[in-house]
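Hi everyone,

Forwarding the result from last night's run.
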Amino acid sequence: MDRRSFIALTAVTGTSATLASCGNPEHQIIRFIPEEEHVPGVAEWKPSLCPLCQAGCGVLVRVMEGDAEVVRGQGVGQTGVIRMGLAKKLEGNPAHPISQGKLCARGQAAIQVTYHPDRLTHPLKRTGPRGSGQFQQIGWDDALAQVVAALDGLVGANNQRGLAFLKRPGRGQRDELVSQFLERFGAPAAVSFELFSDDVLRRANLMSFGHEQLPTFDLEHSRYVISFGADFLGTWNSPVAQSAAYGRMRQGRRGVRDTPRLSAMSVGD
């Protein structure tokens, strides 16, 4: 695989692959025309995963047939309309062990990754000083050519280790592809980042239980829950699974908490 193909592939797979989205329908990486026939007005539910946090909640995507405006022909920029399956709604998957049919507000809004009018739909090149927020829209061919030229410049200067690849945490096929590219190019491993970083939590779980992952708390079978600054019903760890388990704990069990009463205390930082 050459560098241009690699960059094009990661650009496509880096988007929210859980939703049917707009793009180049002739591209072989993503099928924009579903294999099965869609009946107008009849919805289908496709299983997938929510991409907005590391909890990995299972979702069902409501897909219906509709018209979508797409751009045909790489480098040509010809717009047109194609009949295709469009994602309309996201819901929790009852068969998924984490979401259990529930979905938080961020997950419900994840469909805007594909449809929000302010999303980025074309490459942007910085035209002003760093931090000025001045960008110019350029074509995909131009953007890929500039990236490939920069990579060739590193190779020519024998400075492959000067390449830094930033990505979100993940363990999917895209991450494996990135790892293989960086290794063959001679660059350092990718640097992961996330807005709500759980690195400390993963490290603590590794030191305590031998698994570098987000911990799972058995809230359902707890007698009392005391939280010190952890918004476990909001945005912390796996809020969907924790909210469902906390709700079952609050219902009471035979011989334990038969009369539901306030038992959770949250102390701010």
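The chain has a mean pLDDT of 77.

Cheers,
N.
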